[in-house]
Amino acid sequence: MLFLVQMEVRIPHDLDPAAADDLRARERDVAQAIQRDGRWPHLWRVAGRYANVSVFDVDSPDELHALLSSLPLFPFIDARVTPLARHPSAIDHETAAAFEQASAAERRERR
Ligand SMILES: O=C(O)C[C@H]1C=CC(=O)O1
């Protein structure tokens, strides 16, 4: 299942700078691990804002919530989640379906 996730990050201004740096470093490690395992195929910075637009490829809303809440910055993230369905006019329908099946099979193998 694909989910569009729009994240707005608001780290409190009075947070100790060293603690904020540590949070960002840990966030990067966790985010990159999830990208490497294929469940976070798109991560884009929203130009001009401390925000991102992401696509997650997971089996369920519960799995998505577990991933999002594992992010070190989670307490400071406002996440808006939109489930995605295939658009009937999308020309890459078959490719997307094949990719989705392959990545679902890969995820099953990893478990
Ligand atoms: O910077 C952000 O957008 C928040 C978060 C998402 C990935 C990551 O490394 O940090």
Automatic annotation (TrEMBL):
GO BP, sorted A to Z: beta-ketoadipate pathway
UniProt-listed InterPro entries: Dimeric_a/b-barrel (IPR011008), MLI_dom (IPR026029), Muconolactone_d_Isoase (IPR003464)
Catalytic activity: (S)-muconolactone = (4,5-dihydro-5-oxofuran-2-yl)-acetate
The keyword Isomerase belongs to this UniProt entry's keyword annotation: yes
GO molecular function, one term: muconolactone delta-isomerase activity
Gene3D superfamilies, per database record: Dimeric alpha+beta barrel
Broad enzyme group: isomerase
Pathway(s) per entry: Aromatic compound metabolism; beta-ketoadipate pathway; 5-oxo-4,5-dihydro-2-furylacetate from catechol: step 3/3
Superkingdom, natural source: Bacteria
Domain Muconolactone isomerase per the UniProt entry, residue ranges: 1-89
Enzyme Commission number(s) from the entry: 5.3.3.4
Similarity section: Belongs to the muconolactone Delta-isomerase family.
Subunit structure, as described in the record: Homodecamer.
Protein name, UniProt field: Muconolactone Delta-isomerase
Species annotation: Patulibacter medicamentivorans
Lineage, opening ranks: Bacteria, Bacillati, Actinomycetota, Thermoleophilia, Solirubrobacterales
